[in-house]
Structure formats: C-alpha cells, structure tokens
Specification:
It is a single chain. The protein is an alpha/beta fold. It contains 16 helices and 22 strands. Helix 1 crosses helix 7 (189-200), helix 4 (85-96) packs across helix 5 and helix 6 (163-174) packs across helix 16 (462-468). The chain is globular and about 75 Å long. This is Aldehyde dehydrogenase family protein.
C-alpha cells in the first residue's frame, strides 16, 4: 500500500501520466517488450526561467538545512528505499532492461550511496588551518569550512538509472546544494521515484528540480548562469558539446571507457574466466567499466579462449524479469543494430567470430571475437554492448603497451599470482582503477571513480563528488590589535 501511495504522489507531483495522448508527455517503453510502461511530462527548453526560479528557491532551502537535517533526509530516504527495494528493482528492469538479479544489486547499491552521503554530510565539514606553521602568523588561528556551490546541473544516463542518479543527488544534498536533474529520456522513472522518496524523507521539494527533455533542454540548463557545476555521465560527443558551451563553471564528467584485462601465464584461469565473463556481459555490456579487451599470455590463450567461449555459450539471453536470465536486452533496437554493424565491419577486416553476433529485436547475443584489427572502430572505441575481444600477447610489456594504447580509460584488470607483476601493473596501467585478480567491472560506491586521459574530468564516489560539489571558505582570526 505504501508503495502504491508513493506512485500516486509521484504522478501528481512530477507529471507521470498513464498514457501518451498528450503531446506534452514523453512515453517510457520497456526495452524488452516495447510496451509503454509510463510517461513523464516534457519540460520545454523555453521554460528554463521557471526551472531556474525553482532551483533558486531550492538553493535557499538547501542552504538553510543543517548538516544534521541533510544527513537525516539522506538516511531516511535510504531506509525507505531499502524497504521498497524490490519495487525499485522491478522498475529498473521495466525501463532499463536490466535482469531482475542485476537490478536488485543496483537498488542495494543506491541505498548504500545515500547512506554514504549521509555520513559525508556529518563528517566532511572542513579542517583547522595551522597558521602558526608560517613565521609571522603564530598568533593567528582559523579553519576552513566546506560550503555549497549553489545550483548543480546533473545529467544522467540510462544504464544505471537509479544508482547513478543517487551518485549525483546524494553528495549534492549532503553539501547543501540544489540540483537541476535531467535523467535519461529513456529511463526517467527510477530517477523520479528516487526524488519523490527524498521528498518523503523530508527534503524540501524545490531542492531537486527534475526536467525531462532532449538536447535543447539540456543546453538551456547547462548554460544557465546560476548553474555553478555540471555533473555529467554519458557519451563523448555530448561531453564535448557540454565543455564547449557550458561557460565558466565546474565540470565533472564520466565519458566512458574501453577496459582492458590482462591474463598472465601464472593466472588462476578458472577465476579469470568466471570474472571476465561477468565483467563483459553484465547489464548486456552497457557498462562503462565492462571488460572489452582481454589480453592473454600466448601460452594460455587457447585454454582461456575455449573455456571463455564455452561459459559464454551457457549464458541465457531473454526476458529480464525472469530470474534465470543472464543477459537482458539492449536499451533500443537501434543500438543493438549498431553494435552488430561494428562487429560485422570488424569481421570484414579480418576479425574472427567465436560466438554470438545474433540479434532478435533488442536482444543481442553475447559475442566473443579474436584477431580484431587494432585500427578497427570496434577495437578503438567503447563498445557499450555485450561483446568482448580476446587477444594473445607474448610478454607482460606487450600487454601493458596494448592495454594503454587507447585514448581513454576508466578501469583495467589483471590476473596474476605474481605480486611483482600486480604492483607493476598497478603503477603502469593508465586507468582510474586497477583491479587485481578481478575483471575491470568492479566498483565500490565510496571509492574515487573516474578515468585517465581523454574523456574524463573529476571523480565520482561519494566523498570525492561531495568535495567537488562544495568549496572551501577560510576563517582566519587575528588577535586584537594585530591586523
């Protein structure tokens, strides 16, 4: 009953409609069945003045909240989400196509993200400054506090429609900011339910302004002078457009990756195969830290390849609501077709298909290739699809060089029993995270998360996003008569 009432409040407050008869509403479709599962009110780009009016009210309301009040809201929302975890998970499955098993894990992570944000609100208030460490300032005392930036624009993608929103909202609220949130047009329902849950937990309604729409709306939001920071997770082209047009404000961007995993000759092959199959095909490969290139010591290549392909063939693609499904649909048929087209092009260039590359609507079967040309688009770009490339290497040095050959990098992995090789890889792999004896696809929501080289700016992870979303203010007290 409580969840039903929540849905009714959500519909009344945020404009969710049961049909798409009104041109002012945007239908949300199941990636698997194609049926409309709801709709959201479209925010015209021309209404940006009203949007910013609400955001300014939200900024005032957020700034008036004490740290204890912010923490209480975040903790309360985390408890409500935990109580309704199955409902959140089923909504993720319905709108994003994640398998129900994967969606439950995302819902649990989002609960933890809000709990971590509550702790940050209480903990990270600033520091004492040792003025007396500098000659001539021995009599001065002071500190710095962490103050809100003001209004933050948050733009989120479809692939983690709940937890990636929590990673924007949680740290922003903990820091005393207001947020203009633009969730993916494909998956806005989880975001809206999260916002409504925060309001139910006591957050003043104006603190988070949700807008739904396309590029024109996004451009209007990011260029608004009152917006002091844009936090964006999404594609490279959109990230470049934001950087060109946002103006003088902070930018935090996670723009994707092309993750390499090294499997050395001394690796535990059973562990490596299991972890890399999961890392490559989790969330139908629509995962910025998903394993895309596996670099395997030549003497173990055939053994790894045969075991990897055999395990991949066991994966079941299908209905994401079925507990037995391993790989759900891609978000749209168009992106599934685009993934297949890239694979077909690579095969035409000489790549060898080991399994997969079959398409049925939005379902794209888990795909494994070898001998993919290094100059192909498939090799050099982020695939964001359930496909992986296997590659034999003749030395550790070659593996490192090939792993680092791509212009952007979020995570990397290495399987080895050698501490020397593990530590060397940790130093030399050009990535924001190096996972030892695990695939690239591991993230703990408290750790710093972001990429190296082209395509990433700043870090997520609750503490690190919180610090990006706040600014230091120094207070220095001089003894009377010593100005």
């Amino acid at each position: 009953m409580a969840d039903t009432l929540l849905t009714h409040r959500l519909a009344a407050r945020l404009g969710v409609n049961d049909n798409d008869d009104d041109k002012g509403f945007l239908a949300v479709h199941s990636p698997y069945t194609g049926e409309a599962i709801g709709s959201v009110r479209v925010t015209p780009a021309t209404s940006i003045a009203e949007v910013m009016d609400q955001a300014r009210r939200g900024r005032t309301a957020a700034a008036a909240m004490s740290r204890a009040e912010r923490a209480a809201v975040l903790e309360g929302a985390a408890r409500l989400m935990e109580q309704r975890a199955e409902s959140f998970a089923r909504l993720i499955t319905a709108e994003a196509g994640k398998t129900i098993v994967q969606a439950r894990k995302e819902a649990a992570r989002a609960v933890n993200t809000l709990a971590l944000s509550a702790a940050e609100a209480r903990r990270n208030a600033g520091e004492v400054i040792p003025f007396d460490s500098y000659a001539g300032s021995e009599q001065r005392q002071g500190w710095f506090t962490r103050e809100p930036l003001g209004i933050i624009a948050a733009i989120t993608p479809f692939n983690d429609p709940l937890n990636l929103v929590a990673h924007k909202l949680g740290p922003a609220i903990a820091g005393g900011n207001a947020v203009v949130l633009k969730p993916s047009e494909l998956t806005p329902l989880s975001a809206l339910r999260l916002v409504d849950t925060l309001v139910e937990a006591g957050l003043p309604q104006d603190v988070v302004t949700v807008v739904n729409g396309g590029r024109e709306l996004g451009a209007a939001v990011i260029t608004a002078p009152e917006v002091r920071m844009v936090s964006f997770t999404g594609g490279f082209a959109t990230g470049e457009a934001i950087a060109r047009t946002a103006g003088l404000k902070k930018l935090a961007m996670d723009l994707g990756g092309n993750a390499p995993v090294l499997v050395l000759a001394d690796a535990d092959l059973d562990l490596a195969v299991d972890a890399c199959v999961s890392g490559a095909f989790w969330a139908a490969g629509q995962n910025c830290i998903g394993t895309q290139r596996i670099l395997i010591a030549r003497e173990r290549f055939a053994e790894f390849r045969d075991a990897f392909v055999a395990k991949t063939r066991q994966l079941r693609a299908g209905d994401p609501g079925d507990e037995a499904t391993d790989v759900g649909p891609m978000i749209t048929e168009a992106v599934a077709l685009a993934a297949k087209a890239k694979v077909d092009a690579a095969i035409a260039q000489g790549a060898v298909l080991l399994c997969g590359n079959e398409i049925d609507g939005t379902l794209y079967t888990p795909t494994v290739l070898e001998n993919v040309p290094a100059d192909s688009a498939l090799y050099r770009e982020e695939a964001f699809a359930p496909l992986v490339m296997l590659e034999a290497v003749d030395s550790f040095e070659e593996a490192l060089a090939r792993a680092n050959a791509i212009d952007f990098s979020l995570h990397a992995g290495i399987f080895t029993t050698s501490l020397d090789h593990a530590m060397a890889a940790a130093r030399r792999l050009e990535a924001g995270g190096v996972m030892v004896n695990d695939s690239s696809d591991y993230r703990f929501d408290a750790m710093p998360f972001g990429g190296f080289k082209y395509g990433s700016m700043g870090r997520e992870g609750v503490r690190f996003a919180y610090e990006d979303m706040t600014q230091p203010k120094v207070v220095c007290i001089s003894p009377a008569g010593r100005l």
